[in-house]
Amino acid sequence: MTNLKTDAAYELFEGLIRGSRPHLSRAISYVENGAPGAAELLSHAYKARKGAMLTGVTGSPGVGKSTLVDGIVSELRKAGHTVGVIAVDPSSPFTGGAILGDRVRMRQGHSLDQGVFFRSLATRGHLGGLSRHTGDVVALLDAFGFDHIVIETVGAGQSEVDIMRYAHTVVVALAPGLGDDMQAIKAGILEIGDVFCVNKADLPGAERTRRDIEMMLAMREPGGWTPPVVSSVAVAGKGLEGLVGEVLRHQTYLVSSGLLRERNRGSSTAVLEEYLHLLTVGKVMESASRDGSLDAALDDLVEGKSGPMEMAERLLRRYRE
Amino acid sequence: MTNLKTDAAYELFEGLIRGSRPHLSRAISYVENGAPGAAELLSHAYKARKGAMLTGVTGSPGVGKSTLVDGIVSELRKAGHTVGVIAVDPSSPFTGGAILGDRVRMRQGHSLDQGVFFRSLATRGHLGGLSRHTGDVVALLDAFGFDHIVIETVGAGQSEVDIMRYAHTVVVALAPGLGDDMQAIKAGILEIGDVFCVNKADLPGAERTRRDIEMMLAMREPGGWTPPVVSSVAVAGKGLEGLVGEVLRHQTYLVSSGLLRERNRGSSTAVLEEYLHLLTVGKVMESASRDGSLDAALDDLVEGKSGPMEMAERLLRRYRE
Fold first, then answer.
1. Domains of chain B
2. Scanning every residue of chain B, which has its alpha carbon at the shortest distance from the alpha carbon of A63?
3. Predicted ipTM?
């Protein structure tokens, strides 16, 4: 590892691999802030990954995702696994970090447990669903050596599709009484779930929500993995063992069927595309912004003097020269 | 327009500009399917845009967005405006188009009205929030000559941030009783709204939802536009006039403050980045996939023999040579 030129990056990588939590925390901030040695640190972290299992948990606001994730973590700990948690938070700039207060509080149950590490990532300002750094932070946690990594994301849109690209197992959390269930199904949520969990199962309508999902799932092509539907009351600690059991069963299935490698290739494709975007679109936009050609290009586009394809070609040519 | 080399593209563009709805429909399919002349058709459409006002409507599943959009369309029609509607549907592959049944039914109220055009766009298979074609379809509708274009999107995640990049005015729809309101606020929904609408305002808790939003909005930096909060019961046709009044007032504000040009530059930036992505990342991945180097690259990444940055640089070098 002597080719880590930047001293700070070297120290962080070294500490991380050694299992130092303060180094891991600082390494994540280092990457989030785009520090000078970040690329080098990440290059080593990606190669030092130990093969953690990755579980994504997603669902609409109000289904009790944070509590559910807490419960999943507890169950994984009982089974002797160490767990790193990434919560992707599309935070608001004017409410700041304060709104995360309750989330942090919920995590206090694990705060003294050295086998659990929790980190929030903001998506603010990044395009493409998850935080731009999600893949990178997963690599850091994996190089650190957690057995399991759980990614929690809010929303019923693109972030689910993106999370699927990174996770081995996607848990879709639902709850009864969240309006029109068909709407959730419209949101394409069914197609990405490996395990479905009807949380708040003590509320009226839970059985119906469960039946609706099962009916929709029955319309899928048979063969391969049949996504199970489990029920839980996460605040009361109910149903979590069953949920985690299904997650682990799915991961065993991925290994035995050879699909694990497919999923890993999928997440590598996602990461590769992100890096290519940085190296191409990112550089072209940066250079065009610096020399004023972006400004002129936007004026032309707004005024309809040029179309976006011609303009993209022109900026690209200019950048390459 | 004689430089439209492809006959089909020429005919489509010509028909579209002339105001033929069948040509508009076919032009959209042409673009969605990536037909050979699509780039040329779009290049002309972008330059022929007439400056429609763009309103985005977003909110979690269950708030009654489709009904609300229908109501907005009716109000705009009453005011004498023509309206094009794009509904972005993250549709499921195994439930197919069938789940859109109710949505289509809802639109039948406008189906005989030549001043309204409705189109669903699937996001399936595309990265980056909205359908990759959203900007392009907006350009087609704008070139056709609609006074207003309404984009409806589902979700509480990245798609909202993306819609903000295209719309002049973003309407955030909420409803009482959709679980934890703070969760919606966490989802960053507050920061993107120009107009807030508490729909289903006849349900218990509506007043509280409204107060919560107003309280959060009061924490914003003062100055500029203060987002109004309106109430509606869209299924009963209540509150829609007030809602559309606020949308139009926001658009008048954008014009008088000069911010309209800023928003147009923002959406041009989004479109430009998409085209640059196609021309760079798209081409590199395509070429690497063709010659087998992508396959080898993914193997190396999965096995930890290489990091994504090195690999992205290698593929890019190879592509350029």
1. 1-48 (no CATH), 49-257 (3.40.50.300), 272-320 (no CATH)
2. B179
3. 0.84
